[in-house]
Amino acid sequence: MDPSSAPLTATWPNRNFSARKKVECLRTFFRFAQASGWITDNPAAKLESPKVNEPPVLPFTREEWVRILAACDQYQDNYGHTGQANARRLRALVLLLRYSGLRIGDAVGLSRERIADGKLFLYTAKTGTPVYCPLPDWVLSALEAAPRTSEKYFFWTGAGKLKSAIGDWQRSFGKLFKLAKVPEGHAHRFRHTFAVELLLAGVPMERVSMLLGHSSVRVTERHYAAWVRARQEQLEADVRRTWAADRGASEGTREVHGGSAFVQ
To answer: Looking at residue 252, what is its pLDDT?
Structure first.
């Protein structure tokens, strides 16, 4: 194919929603430029939106979760020692991510003051109402028991850039998932696991959306619609299981009452 005929977006390093957002910004800028009389034609008018290929939502399975926790106990520091300070901090971070739904950046930069009375302050909603997420006792205990590098933060010293600290923890997760034999492991799957477990437990989509801090419930639906269907399939299977115990009684009643479909 002639490179000159390739779409402009093909040369961008941006992909998926980042690329789409970039196109929207270009369109907005050139519309303004045209409306202001700076240009006569809008060169971005015919610019096509890039295709978005979203990776599937993959929560951790129960078996993977067990292996990840076990790998935390086997995690070695740079000197080959297990169970040392970094391993305990890593386990605490794993538990926090799984039971809070936080993104890794928010978790690494989490300050201690945001946890009080067993609840994690997530954010303030548009209505001005604070949104909290309760944390299990074992998560709170792991956070308190993790060796401190800062009086203010759980997983960051507060010195240097937060982005660098996030990179360090991501490398630790790469090592952890390899140890746990979870080849498709990444930190965001803890967030997916948190959301999917809530949906499968029957928590309404709008409440899950609030806990995840999405800008609208439509964002949540886009990512987790398949798991709402899975919940419906669960409910249908639960109903069908109740039929087995009633089948014999129902058939016997029809014989006695001349084929009536009602169970007396």
So the answer is: 58
User: Residue 1: how many CA atoms within 13 Å on its side-chain side?
Assistant: 6
Q: Are 177 and 70 in contact (CB under 8 A)?
A: no
Rounded-to-integer distance, Cα 175 and Cα 140, Å: 24
Q: What is the pLDDT of residue 244?
A: 79
Specify which residues 131 forms β-bridges with.
Answer: 123
Contact between 192 and 103 (Cβ < 8 Å): no
Query: Does the pLDDT value for residue 103 go beyond 90?
Result: yes
| Residue 51 token pair | 């295709």
Domains assigned to the chain: 1-53 (no CATH), 62-221 (1.10.443.10)
Task: Note the pLDDT of residue 233.
Answer: 85
The continuous run of DSSP H or E covering 130 comes out as: strand 130-134
Asked if the model's pLDDT at residue 21 lies above 80, the reply is no
> How many C-beta atoms surround the C-beta of residue 177 within 10 A?
20
Residues 6+ apart with CB under 8 A from 11: none
CA distance 78 to 162: 22
CB atoms within 10 A of CB 17: 11
Encoded amino acid at 165, one letter:
A
pLDDT band at residue 30, thresholds of 50, 70 and 90? Answer: confident
CA 246/CA 40 separation, integer angstroms:
76
Provide the whole-model pTM.
0.73
Residue 65's contacts (CB-CB under 8 Å, 6 or more residues apart) are 98, 193
